Amino acid sequence: MLKRFLSERPLRLPHLKPYVPRPSDPSIFWFNSERDDVISDVVSRICAAHETDRTRLEMALNDAAFHEIRRLEKQRDEEARDRLGYWRSMIRRVGKMDDSEQRRVLHTIVTNMARDIAGNFDPRVYRFARLAAPRLIGGVMEPRRLTEGLMAGSPASLDRVLRVQGDLDHLRNLQNRGSLVFVPTHSSNLDSIVLSQAIETSGLPPVIYGAGKNLFTNPIISFFMHNLGA
């Protein structure tokens, strides 16, 4: 129950007043104000691409059910107990549904998934993470210097364990022309943190994350992921 609560219910800081991004802020600072529009656009686009072709619509519903059943069967947790019955029932009923019911079910599924995937970005958490990440990385990567890394987190100590290489000028130019997609090699659970710090060190704007639900079961990681766009 706790794991599901942490993965589905974002832990967020209260807002005493609305945050209005400054013109100089990165574009991601505007994400929350545009979130509902993004979700609406995704739902409309996906539904429109499938609703006029019954074969394609039915295939999309079957595909969604198949992958959700497979995911939930591996979890064997409270979410699986609550949702497996729905998906198993749906996959049996898809072929018997009329067109209007199939469209309605698709709209519901896409809306729920889009809301689940669309993140939340809190500039206050981001600013704290900018201060904490160098100390965390410096301390974890060099255990002998753990106290020094956590207390100081100076650029000098971070430079010993983090080196950014490549055509950074080209990346900076590309950020002004479109969306950048970073794909870590996932060599460890620190990948997202290290990549974020590398982006910060390189003078690139912050990014949002695509993260597996397993990362949201840890309350500390869940808090940061929920508030940094994951």
Written account of the structure:
The protein is mostly helical and 230 residues long. It folds into 2 domains: 27-117; 123-227, no CATH class. Helix content is 62%, strand content 0%. The chain has 11 helices and no strands. It has helices spanning 2-8, 31-51, 54-75, 78-93, 99-117, 123-141, 146-151, 155-159, 168-174, 191-201, 219-227. α2 (31-51) packs antiparallel against α5 (99-117), α3 (54-75) crosses α5 and α6 crosses α10. The longest helix has 22 residues, at 54-75. It is globular. 15% of the residues are buried. The model has no long low-confidence stretch (mean pLDDT 79).
Question: Could you outline the blueprint of secondary structure elements for this entry?
Answer:
Blueprint: H1 2-8, H2 31-51, H3 54-75, H4 78-93, H5 99-117, H6 123-141, H7 146-151, H8 155-159, H9 168-174, H10 191-201, H11 219-227
Helix pairs in contact: 2-5, 3-4, 3-5, 6-10
In short:
This protein has 230 residues and is mainly alpha-helical.
The helix-and-strand class reads mainly alpha
**Count, helices:** 11
Please give the number of β-strands: 0
Helix share bin = 55-70%
Q: Sheet bearing the most strands, described?
A: none
Oligomer, anyone? single chain
The amount of beta strand, in percent, is: under 5%
Structural domains: how many:
2
Shape: globular
Q: Rg to the nearest angstrom? A: 21 Å
Distance between the termini: 21 Å
Give start-end ranges of low-pLDDT stretches. Answer: none
Compute the average pLDDT.
79
Helix-strand string? HHHHHHHHHHH
